[in-house]
Amino acid sequence: MPDLFLSLDSLGPLLTPRLICLSIAAVFAAAILRGFTGFGFALAAVPLLGLFMSPTQAVPVSIGLQLLGSLIDFRHATKSCHWPSLRWMMLGAAIGSPLGALVLNHVPAPVARLVISAITMMAVFALGRGFALAAMPGRVVTTITGLLAGLFNGLAAMPGPPAVAYYMSAPLPRTTVRASLVVFFLLTSVAAMASGIAIGLITVQTLCLSLLGLPAMWIGTRVGHMAFVRSNDAMHRHVSIISLGIIALVSAAKGISELL
């Protein structure tokens, strides 16, 4: 217990009123996007939090909030998600994540980001042109999609694009699409949290900051969900495709900056 209190005391310089207020505002804005689309929290939270704290703090805080938020939404999401595809998607992701980490030992991270960005932009282009599947893909295609998501996760901590493209093109109601993405990203958050703890990225400081942001995460998600309920299929698809495109552009920009 003394060590815990010592760690909490060390939060003093971090937990200034200004930092807390700005961080809560950033989390709230990112949570609205997540509440509407079912994904995209880290896309908005990490750069916004990065305005007020270092990336080594912003990333784990985002991971913690994504995990906590997904746990809160999990029970409701399981009622409308598409379990038949999720089971095979999760299997593929479990296989792909360690493979992606192994590939990363031989491929520079910036190059991996650029490749992922290019693939994601192709998916954005196809979805923007109205690409849609007439029927749900079979087990093999779904598992391969999960494998790609796992590879993306291991290579650049970006499991989202394959899963988002899969469910956005599937013949499913938008409620099922959103719920399936929430459940899928809960699993990737668990994996990210485990990795963060293993390498020392998740600390008492970042956990405390995540807990402080949890009310804003919950309220923002509820606001986003209310907007989702009042929207239509076209609007949800439009916002989701734009968000996926932003993910690709941000990843490309980061890859280029790292190469330079």
Descriptive notes:
- The structure is a single chain.
- With 260 residues, this protein is mainly alpha-helical.
- The protein has helices at residues 2-9, 17-37, 41-49, 55-77, 83-104, 109-128, 139-156, 160-169, 174-198, 204-230, 233-259.
- α3 runs antiparallel to α4 (55-77).
- The longest helix is centred in the last third of the chain and has 27 residues, at 204-230.
- Residues 1-13 have low confidence and may be disordered.
- Helix-strand pattern, N to C? HHHHHHHHHHH
Tell me the count of domains: 1
The total count of helices amounts to 11
Number of strands: 0
Strand content: under 5%
Backbone structural class: mainly alpha
Question: For this entry, what is the oligomeric state of its chains?
Answer: single chain
General shape: globular
Characterize the largest beta sheet: strand count, sense, and whether it forms a barrel: none
Rg, alpha carbons:
18 Å
Overall mean confidence score, pLDDT: 84
Low-confidence stretches: 1-13
Measured as a percent range, the helix fraction is: over 70%
How far apart, in Å, are the first and last alpha carbons? Answer: 46 Å
Summarize the structure.
Helices cover 81% and strands 0% of the residues.
What secondary-structure arrangement, pairings included, does this model have?
Blueprint: H1 2-9, H2 17-37, H3 41-49, H4 55-77, H5 83-104, H6 109-128, H7 139-156, H8 160-169, H9 174-198, H10 204-230, H11 233-259
Helix pairs in contact: 2-3, 2-10, 3-4, 4-9, 4-10, 5-7, 5-9, 6-8, 6-11, 7-8, 8-9, 8-11
